[in-house]
Write a structure and sequence with these properties.
Oligomer: single chain
Helix content: 10-25%
Order of helices and strands: EEEHEHHEHHEEEEEHEHHEHE
Shape: globular
Bound molecules: zinc ion
Number of domains: 1
Distance between the termini: 46 Å
CATH topology: Metallo-beta-lactamase, Chain A
CATH superfamily: Ribonuclease Z/Hydroxyacylglutathione hydrolase-like
CATH architecture: 4-Layer Sandwich
Strand order of the largest sheet: 7-8-9-10-11-12-13
Strand content: 15-25%
């Protein structure tokens, strides 16, 4: 008989391209527009553009390493952008980074659109959290429970900063009545799919299997004692995700010519119209277009993908122009939900 007191969550440690956006012009891969083929280096002033759907373009997401943007949003409830969440697909398996709102449904949409079985709900069983801000974690109950209802067999493996394991315990407890109902009721259910195996991480290699190695590195996100970026190595490619961060040199060192750099950004131009108290916060917590250009010039990614964009009225074209004007002329895409890189 199920009892929550029997340690529902089993923390292993507590406390503690295809892109595919052809890089040519800008509008970058909107949903359904990611194309197949390696990103090309654009000339100065040009940016990644997509041409056709990955599936239509022949991209096979079941082999190699591909980045699927499941949500590019911020705390602001923009209808076009789900909460921040990214899938790194390595030989068909999905490794999720951050759990913004809408995550499981966006994954299902991508699974359908690209024929990516690893993104179907029952297959989502491993995730990494950059930090515990609500916009990056509010989809966690979804990631814990929805795949279980879809008959996920395995517990969810969850890695994140200190507090992650505790959060998993609280979330599971919050849905205790539902878990008891499904385990003890008439509907079929798997015995362990609702569980979370959560690990509070430290910088360094935090996960490795036969497909991929994941390295966490500290970034600077004001007010958080721990916030991480991640580097994925596997399937012949390297992917770096910044998480939320003020400009940090660790990005340059961890990317160092990586294939894909997914980085957060805000508009340096419209920032000037923000109230002083918000300017102070954003300058300490996030990275402007001008600051990102400086980092990207030295990080030399195969493609820089803008993510978690705060435009405050600036258009995508204007934000890209800010980065170009600040001196970065390498491959660049304005990320949108369901783009593939
Ligand atoms: Zn955020
Ligand atoms: Zn944050």
């Amino acid at each position: 008989m199920f009892r929550m007191k029997r340690s529902p969550v089993r923390p292993a440690a507590t406390s503690g391209l295809l892109v595919v956006c052809h890089a040519l012009a800008f509008s970058a891969c909107g949903p359904g527009e990611a194309a197949s083929g390696a990103a090309e280096a654009p000339g100065a002033g040009e940016t990644a553009q997509s041409a056709a759907g990955a599936a239509a373009g022949g991209a096979d997401l079941s082999t190699g390493t591909h980045v699927v943007l499941l949500g590019t949003g911020t705390p602001n409830p923009e209808p076009e952008a789900s909460g921040p969440a990214t899938a790194v697909l390595v030989d068909g398996r999905a490794y999720i980074v951050d759990a913004g709102v809408g995550l499981v449904r966006r994954a299902a949409e991508a699974a359908d659109r690209y024929g990516a079985e690893g993104l179907t709900a029952a297959r989502l069983d491993i995730a990494f959290l950059t930090h515990l801000h609500s916009d990056h974690t509010i989809g966690l109950p979804d990631l814990i429970h929805t795949p279980w209802v879809a008959e996920r067999e395995a517990p969810l493996k969850l890695f994140g900063p200190g507090g992650t394991a505790e959060m998993a315990v609280h979330l599971t407890a919050a849905w205790e009545a539902d878990i008891e109902n499904r385990l003890g009721g008439a509907q079929p259910s798997t015995p362990d799919g609702w569980r979370v195996e959560a690990v509070d991480i430290s910088p360094g290699v935090i996960y490795e299997d036969d497909r991929v190695r994941v390295t966490a590195f500290a970034v600077s996100h004001t007010g958080w004692p721990e916030a991480y970026g991640f580097r994925f190595d596997g399937g012949g490619r390297s992917v770096v995700l910044s998480g939320d961060t003020a400009p940090t040199e660790a990005i340059v060192e961890m990317c160092a010519g990586c294939d894909v750099l997914v980085h957060e950004v805000y508009s340096a131009t419209t920032f000037r119209d923000r109230p002083p108290e918000w300017q102070s916060y954003h300058a300490q917590a996030h990275t402007s277009t001008v600051e990102l250009a400086s980092l990207a010039v030295r990080a030399r990614p195969g493609i820089l993908v803008l993510h978690h964009q705060l435009g405050w009225g600036a258009t995508p074209e204007e934000m890209v122009a800010e980065i170009r004007a600040a001196g970065y002329d390498g491959p660049l895409a304005y990320g949108r939900d369901l783009d593939v890189y």
